[in-house]
Amino acid sequence: MQQKADTPGNILISIIIATFNAGKHLQDCLSSIAAQTANIEVIVTDGGSTDDTLAILKTFEHKLNLSWTSGPDAGIYDALNKGVQKAKGKWVYFLGADDRLLPAFSQLAAQLKDERTVYYGDSEPYYGNSGTTPLLLTGKFSRYRLAKHGMNHQAIIYPITVFHQYTYDLRYRVFADYALNIQVWGDNTFKKVYHPITIARYDMTGFSAGGNDVLFKQDKLQLIRRNMGWLLYIRMLYKRYKQKLQGEGGYWDA
Fold first, then answer.
1. What per-residue confidence (pLDDT) applies to 3?
2. Do the bridges between strand 13-19 and strand 91-94 make them parallel or antiparallel, or are there none, so unpaired?
3. Where in the numbering of this chain does the Glycosyltransferase 2-like domain appear (predicted)?
4. DSSP SS3 for 198
């Protein structure tokens, strides 16, 4: 499918998807992208699927501006890093094969103007058929709120300039996206602009839901100190100490 030319308000967005045996969900995911009015390229990095994932990708080659590769990788964040390297757009967005774009994604896409600004909205998480939406994943994120708990990856459209400076740290098998956001939210050279619109539906039973990233949990305070400064580090250190005294968890689970 021929790529549209960049025009004001219609700048190319690279949507990057990492897949592995994702045939059960992939068709609905790609269909939700095809329904958008934004100028989009789709980059799929597949880890060597043996189900019908590749056959589904081939059926969408003429419906989307789609490119894909399939072969071994070192995990989902390695696949996403590889996808970023292939991106031609000035903006980058990450989607899981079991996630869906909502119509408002194109509404947020129309707001993309400043290539040193991270734009984000809300996602619509769900737990299987329960329809539960945890409020911690929605709304505006300050540094302090992000330090307490991670935001939903599928709510954010990054300028490609973010990835000229940062990449996903492959040491963090589950929460490399959270680690990257700590870096980005701590970087004053990037503005962060929130729009209260819901742009995606995110499957909370997916990859990160059941993962236990012990190394990230060990490193989280130091990531905050290095990227967000000593004052926030001390505040969060006190928060952790207070929680331990009270026998509580929460802020440090992820």
1. 58
2. parallel
3. 14-138
4. strand
**Distant-in-sequence, close-in-space partners of 101: CB < 8 Å, separation ≥ 6:** 32, 33, 35, 36, 95, 199, 200
Amino acid at 34: A
Look at residues 46, 107, 33, 41 and name the one whose alpha carbon lies nearest to residue 73.
46
Whether the CB-CB separation of 152 and 120 falls below 8 Å is answered with: no
Measuring CA to CA, which residue among 236, 223, 201, 34 is closest to residue 128? Answer: 201
Give per-residue pLDDT as tens, 184-231: 999 999 999 999 999 999 886 655 555 689 999 999 999 999 999 999
Express each pLDDT in 42-64 by its tens digit. Answer: 999 999 999 999 999 999 999 99
Q: What are the structural domains of the chain?
A: 13-246 (3.90.550.10)
**Residue 128 phi, psi (nearest 5):** 60, -120
Continuous H helices in the chain: 23-34, 53-59, 76-86, 104-109, 143-148, 162-165, 176-185, 214-228, 230-246
Using CA atoms, how far apart are residues 160 and 181, in angstroms rounded to an integer? 14
